[in-house]
Design goal:
InterPro entries: 6-PGluconate_DH-like_C_sf (IPR008927), 6PGD_dom2 (IPR013328), G3P_DH_NAD-dep (IPR006168), G3P_DH_NAD-dep_C (IPR006109), G3P_DH_NAD-dep_N (IPR011128), NAD(P)-bd_dom_sf (IPR036291). The chain is of the alpha/beta class. Helix content is about 50%, strand content about 10%. The chain binds NADPH dihydro-nicotinamide-adenine-dinucleotide phosphate and 1,3-dihydroxyacetonephosphate.
Length: about 350
Amino acid sequence: MMHTHRVAVLGGGSFGTVIANLIAGNGHRVCLWLRNDERVGAINRERENAEYLPGYRLHEKLRATTSLEDAVSAIDILFLAVPSASFREVARRLAGLLSPDTLLVSLTKGIEAPGFHLMSEILAQELPDNPCAVLSGPNLAGEIAAGGIAGAVVASRSDAINSTLHDLLHSERFLIYGSGDMYGVELGGALKNVYAILAGLGDALDFGENTSGLLLTRALSEMSRFAVHSGANPMTFLGLAGVGDLFVTCSSPLSRNYRIGQAIGRGQPLAEVLAEMDQVAEGINTLELLKSQAEQRGVPMPLVNGLYDILHHSRPVSELFSDMMSREQAQDVEFVAG
Ligand SMILES: NC(=O)C1=CN([C@@H]2O[C@H](COP(=O)(O)OP(=O)(O)OC[C@H]3O[C@@H](n4cnc5c(N)ncnc54)[C@H](OP(=O)(O)O)[C@@H]3O)[C@@H](O)[C@H]2O)C=CC1
Ligand SMILES: O=C(CO)COP(=O)(O)O
């Protein structure tokens, strides 16, 4: 007989809603926590989160609430799907509300400033008694909501946790793989957002397929180099949380980060693009953090530096390749042939 769990998902945006609904569809009771009263009422009444995923039918086992206490009462697994900028604030509010057995799972693909903290590190700092895991992979929320098949990696320090999460999430349309490289899996999800901006920019400027292939390969090399230098397993970057997610976000207008790049490539100023975004795109903040962290750690990242200069110092895109193509950089091939 299937073991049923009591689950809460914090953050009722596009990804939190999709994950909550997949779990409810697998037969578990799920409480989705949002901060907007009207939206909670509409979700419970209409079975739809119309602001984020119009037309996506929500399962009867999913209910929404604005009360954090209510959401997390008597649960054994808790997912966090709020943007990285709000992650610590939300994690702090959980202190004293959870049993130490409650498993925490981050869905967030970002990095906290200052300190360059990943979300699992924030959880370990704020809720040190609870076990934690992360989920990452090529998972555009809109496509999963439309019924597309997708796969993701769950990563933690324990096979038993990975196996619990596999059983909770796995279905015919959502394939779950396990990894012990929590840091690498989490870092892959955060870093690829930066390169998705670059790919969107290239799309707006009609880069050819060869150029896109060059950029994607160099991006994979660059992000793997940074991650491995920081202790991640290089093999992680050949999997779903590495090249899988990089590929999808660098090719799809469904990605918010890709769309930011497209808009900038069409000449829209960055501040205006950001002001128009009604959903989170983590890549802009990550870019800034990554650039300074790579400098501190002595990791060469010509694409990150090039994109930063384009966005923040109005450097022409045509100069992007000059650093990357310099003789030293072209010979600097450590993890991915390119
Ligand atoms: N969308 C996707 O395809 C995927 C997204 N992710 C990652 O998931 C994370 C969340 O993204 P996503 O769901 O897409 O983002 P959205 O912008 O769609 O939603 C963010 C949600 O977080 C809520 N929120 C923000 N700040 C707070 C806060 N302080 N307290 C409570 N709730 C808050 C927002 O509430 P409100 O509506 O009230 O503003 C909103 O419901 C990001 O790190 C993203 O990179 C990962 C995989 C796929
Ligand atoms: O992480 C994602 C897909 O895997 C979503 O990317 P965006 O945040 O750019 O929409």
